[in-house]
Amino acid sequence: MWQYLVKRLVSLIPLLLVVSFIVFMFIHIIPGDPARLLAGKEATAEEVEMARVSLGLDKPLYEQYFIYLKDLLTGNMGYSVKSGAPVSQLIGDRIMPTLGLTFLSIIWALVVGILIGVVSAVFRNKWPDHLGMFTAVSGISLPNFWVGLVLIQLFSVQLGMFPTGGAEGWSSYIMPSFALGAGIMAMIARFTRSSLVESMKQDYIRMGRAKGLGSRQIIFGHALKNSLIPVVTVAGLQFGFLLGGSVVVETVFSFPGLGTLLIDSIQFRDYPVVQAEILLFACQFIVVNMIIDVVYSYLNPKIRYE
Amino acid sequence: MSDLLQVKNLKTGFQTENGFLPVVHGISFHVNQGEIVGLVGESGSGKSVTSLSIMRLFHDTRGKIADGEILYKGENLLTFPEKKMTKYRGKELSMIFQEPMTALNPVLTIGKQMRETIMLHLGMSKKEAHQYAIEKLKLVGIPRAEQVMEDYPHQLSGGMRQRVIIAMQISCNPSLLIADEPTTALDVTIQAQILKLMEEIQEKTNMGILLITHDLGVVAEICDRVIVMYAGRIVEEASAVDLFENPKHPYTKGLMESAPKIGSKKDRLNSITGTVPNPNNMPKGCKFAPRCPVAMPICHEKEPELMADGNHSARCWLLDEEVKKKEEMLNA
């Protein structure tokens, strides 16, 4: 197991290098003079030249990349054009609320999704199944910004139970995480259901029954672990998208996370911040994928021993 | 010898969109304590459905037992509530399946799957069950049993897996073991080993075994008595010796002729022409008549009863003296 983990970690290094290179090139690929972009729209010609030298943009490209890598490793991601604050600090302020929001969303989506999926599979084609799948279809079909707006109208404006936005205390996390997780919950429910139904048809299930196992042992002891393999894949991918994709929900709830920071930065053409966020999202995706692989190998011994 | 299992007039079939489709048509047979009974037939003859009926393993399928009795030690299993039946499965009656590759759960260790049954039926602690399971694995000839307990199914060969399954299914000392084509998916050399193992276990434990197979070679190897099935009916029943010396039903004869023989100079094997009739479209008279080389007019009209001659019975008009006489007169 440890061997597998180390192998996976080592294989990340080239991937991270490629990602960092693409992100580094971002500022050179977009049209226009990078020094002007970074100095800001109102900068004079002199200021642009000063920026070029101070940012090292007069050096050859490969040297710039190495400097960029070195800075990254020391936590220096440049300075915001808008506020002049270090990008690392801006990100640092926003990362915890977003992480909290995504974790909350994925956890409730997993718990409820798997539960609905199992119930639907066990009571296949009976009313609990129909109810569960109706919930799932709703979750997939309703766009999260709409869910967010309805929640605000209902629970904040009408009932006054939760704040309309911000990230002050746990109550401000409830509605955004619900809006964010609904679609994922629905997808997990559907995958769990179909996967469990499929597992229940397998020979080892009949064998389990021939051994004298009861339905509960059959479902939870034998079928579910097999069924979770595809579910983990879906959940993991969704989680990766969530980290970057909470932009819409964060905007609806004016939630001070990475999503709103990204929107602000794009609107202001604050390229160092945008660049850092892209890198961050890419890394998060890679890390999530790695975690999925590890969970996957736990669930499926065939992978572990290859 | 007492009847361990007695199947009476069992009718099983599948619930389809067009109503109930019978697959097993009122068969009756028995298995004694300490006896190995072979249930032989082609694919589609209803032999697997019969075995699943005895175990009542039609969960999540459209299978349904429509009529009959299955008496196990005198108790009718078909009247048991599911909960009681669950307690009997694996403890009183056990089953081995055809596909050792898929019958074990791929994500659980052999140990977990072995202990599960033992803890459930024999009420042992995890530790006791572990030791007990190792003993059982050794009993079925698995080398380094301690190590195998930690292995996952994909790390074992087909033959080893079938041994594990046998160990698992006999671990709670069932009185009846149903083996549904236990050697079909295995190499020939492994087949012989598994059969020998089953025979040894049977001798040690005196359990009754119902061996389902399409392979007469397997039957000749270990069975005491044989039941031949065709199209959901029993067409012949006799002791193994009797059946091989004196097969009475043309279908049984056909099966025997289609098996390769050492020393035969023929280039091609004999085969029974045609296929088993579709349950949706059964012929009117004897179900084998359309494929039978010696069919008479009456065979297409009326289905014969199972006619007994001592302990040897067959379902064929040729055994009916009157019909035979009439036929001879017509031919003369």
TrEMBL record, chain A:
The chain crosses the membrane at residues 12-30, 99-123, 173-192, 278-299. CDD domains: TM_PBP2. It is a multi-pass membrane protein. Keywords: Cell membrane, Membrane, Transmembrane, Transmembrane helix, Transport. Residues 95-292 form the ABC transmembrane type-1 domain. InterPro entries: BPD_transp_1_N, MetI-like, MetI-like_sf. The keyword Transmembrane helix applies. It is found in: Cell membrane. The keyword Membrane applies. Part of the ABC transporter complex GsiABCD involved in glutathione import. Probably responsible for the translocation of the substrate across the membrane. Belongs to the binding-protein-dependent transport system permease family. This is Glutathione transport system permease protein GsiC. The lineage of its organism: Bacteria, Bacillati, Bacillota, Bacilli, Bacillales.
UniProtKB/TrEMBL annotation, chain B:
It is a peripheral membrane protein. Residues 5-256 form the ABC transporter domain. It is found in: Cell membrane. It comes from the Bacteria. Gene3D superfamilies: P-loop containing nucleotide triphosphate hydrolases (3.40.50.300). Pfam families: ABC_tran, oligo_HPY. Keywords: ATP-binding, Cell membrane, Membrane, Nucleotide-binding, Transport. Its main location: membrane. InterPro entries: AAA+_ATPase, ABC_Ni/Peptide_Import, ABC_transporter-like_ATP-bd, ABC_transporter-like_CS, Oligopep_ABC_C, P-loop_NTPase. One of its GO terms (molecular function) is ATP binding. Belongs to the ABC transporter superfamily. This is Oligopeptide transport ATP-binding protein AppD. It comes from Neobacillus kokaensis.
